[in-house]
Amino acid sequence: MEENLKRVREEIEKSREHSVTGEEVKLIAVTKTHGVDAIEEAIKLGVTDIGENKVQELTEKMDIIGDKVRYHMIGNLQSNKVKYIYRDVALIHSLDRLSLAKEIEKRAEQTDHIVPCLVQVNIGDEASKGGLAYDGVLPFLESILDYEHIKVEGLMAIAPNVEDEAYLRKLFRKMFALKEDIERRRYEGVHMNHLSMGMSNDFTIAIEEGANMVRVGSRIFGKRHY
């Protein structure tokens, strides 16, 4: 793992040299299906943020590991599971529908919490993936502007799993353009601090095209254990 992390960090820094922004890049180590021991080792090696896809797995790991690391909910979030995590995660990456926003707002209002979220965009128009259609992002943002307990911090996308680099760059550029457009509109309470895109197979390209947050799992921990 130490060697894997070193290589990933080197690739991140090398990609930053060719980035359209040159920004610092936050590494989210994706720990789904990997056990607590592996996460503890990663923390010792300097990992500060981990990402989980499933609420049950996330809460089980939170209970054991505690506040040694920041937790990110990166998978599809069902509304009935919001109550288990909204107070404890650093960021929900997968806000993608009004019903979910309403549930987060309702729960957070009850306990006076502010919940940082990224709006997920289905950049490849894939039926198998969550996320808003590209053209639906602005109307969605405008529909939740009065939700005082949701703090929109940026955008997230999962690119299609393809090897066509030109196509991937096109999609990542489209995401970066959307982020820039939203920033120019200066919506009250909406910030574009994070552009979360890029995973083990495409994070270097994503960084070059403007990502400042990447979600890397198998390149750090090896193949998943099912």
Order of SSEs: HEHEHEHEHEHEHEHEH
Shape designation? globular
Mind telling me the C-alpha Rg? 17 Å
Number of helices: 9
Uncertain segments: none
* Topology-level CATH name: TIM Barrel
Assigned CATH superfamily: Alanine racemase
Fraction in beta strands: 15-25%
What would your notes on this structure say?
- With 226 residues, this protein is α/β, with parallel strands linked by helices.
- It has one domain: Alpha-Beta Barrel (TIM Barrel).
- The chain is 40% helix and 20% strand.
- The chain contains 9 helices and 8 strands.
- It has helices at 2-16, 36-44, 55-65, 82-85, 98-111, 137-143, 165-185, 203-208, 218-221; strands spanning 26-30, 49-52, 70-73, 91-95, 115-121, 150-157, 190-197, 213-216.
- An 8-stranded parallel beta sheet has the order 7-6-5-4-3-2-1-8.
- β6, α7 and β7 form a beta-alpha-beta unit.
- The protein is globular, with a radius of gyration of 17 Å.
- The relative contact order is 0.17.
- The model has no long low-confidence stretch (mean pLDDT 96).
Could you give the topology of this structure?
Elements: H1 2-16, E1 26-30, H2 36-44, E2 49-52, H3 55-65, E3 70-73, H4 82-85, E4 91-95, H5 98-111, E5 115-121, H6 137-143, E6 150-157, H7 165-185, E7 190-197, H8 203-208, E8 213-216, H9 218-221
Parallel strand pairs: 1-2, 1-8, 2-3, 3-4, 4-5, 5-6, 6-7
GO molecular function: pyridoxal phosphate binding
Pfam family, one: Ala_racemase_N
Function: Pyridoxal 5'-phosphate (PLP)-binding protein, which is involved in PLP homeostasis.
